[in-house]
Amino acid sequence: xxxxxxxxxxxxxxxxxxxxxxxxxxxxxxxxxxxxxxxxxxxxxxxxxxxxxxxxxxxxxxxxxxxxxxxxxxxxxxxxxxxxxxxxxxxxxxxxxxxxxxxxxxxxxxxxxxxxxxxxxxxxxxxxxxxxxxxxxxxxxxxxxxxxxxxxxxxxxxxxxxxxxxxxxxxxxxxxxxxxxxxxxxxxxxxxxxxxxxxxxxxxxxxxxxxxxxxxxxxxxxxxxxxxxxxxxxxxxxxxxxxxxxxxxxxxxxxxxxxxxxxxxxxxxxxxxxxxxxxxxxxxxxxxxxxxxxxxxxxxxxxxxxxxxxxxxxxxxxxxxxxxxxxxxxxxxxxxxxxxxxxxxxxxxxxxxxxxxxxxxxxxxxxxxxxxxxxxxxxxxxxxxxxxxxxxxxxxxxxxx
Length: 401
Fold this sequence. Notes:
The chain has 401 residues and is an alpha/beta fold. It has 3 domains: 9-210, 2-Layer Sandwich (Nucleotidyltransferase, domain 5), CATH 3.30.420; 214-306, HRDC domain (DNA polymerase, domain 1, Orthogonal Bundle), CATH 1.10.150.80; 315-399. Helices cover 56% and strands 8% of the residues. The chain has 18 helices and 6 strands. It has helices spanning 9-16, 26-37, 80-88, 98-108, 119-127, 134-142, 162-173, 175-188, 192-210, 228-248, 252-255, 258-267, 272-275, 282-301, 320-337, 341-344, 347-358, 373-399; strands at residues 20-23, 41-49, 57-64, 69-73, 91-94, 116-118. The protein has a 6-stranded mixed beta sheet, with helices on both faces. Strand 3 (57-64) and strand 4 (69-73) form a beta hairpin. Helix 10 (228-248) packs antiparallel against helix 12 and helix 17 packs across helix 18 (373-399). The longest helix is centred in the last third of the chain and has 27 residues, at 373-399. The chain is globular and about 70 Å long. The N and C termini lie far apart (52 Å).
């Protein structure tokens, strides 16, 4: 449970008076890196533009060292050494770090980070909310209000407006204080180590996503009901889209949205006219329609030996009664360890456990390792196996009454 603990007047004044320092050249960046080497914890945030490009354009980096807030004018800087310096600091605090670390892995080309603490993840252990926004987090935890009106502004413009600069500074100004309070409350409830481990697992998961081969991207769009041929076509289309989007530096959805990919796989069009009956944009059909049709036809000519395996049946395919039995086990464990049940295990993760129970040669994803692992292996997997066995017995009885 989250308790609001407002900062004292003196504490808030100290944070409000932290100087904001621009870093616009390599000499200033060297001084900042020296300062980071002297501290045990920093707060980090990024501002970038990614409305009409494949690759995000990093415009600004904000760093709070506890001594000052630094705004890094990214287009003017060589950040090669900076990425390693922040990887070496003992603790790096972010809020909702997914996009920030996505950019870090893209630009740094360094291994997965082991020093990340995500305050959004920490708050999920206290509230059961998985998408706790930064503005709400500060208000509900420290009784601090920050304005978020500049979030969609042009961060590449120079100079920034006073409102943009204040917004950027405030994104890290109170983040270390937020971390301190969340850590205190989590420690009191014996949950800090769990949340720290989840933050680090998430950082590693994001790294794995950044390293994902093009031929695996289809898995985020695929449906378990697709045949192996349909999956092969989807795989080829996603791989083609990825390479094209990268080469022209446009978003994947500029070429084909997930809905369009699914429509192609399900309808298997054989002409430009049939393509026009899908949600594909007319200009895409005009420019790339023949390529799309060729991909479909080429895959259909291939031997099915080259097709991907079908996907595991999702957890939601189990009967309501089976799902209730599993939910009872989840609720019981959540009560025992004082963790919200949707934080203990998310619905989408249950499909991974279900697949593992059906085939123990599969590997559990990283987010199901660590503090959850013993319970999953000792309780949840056997429960799935029993349900699967009972389900199969019922099918046999129905076939042979």
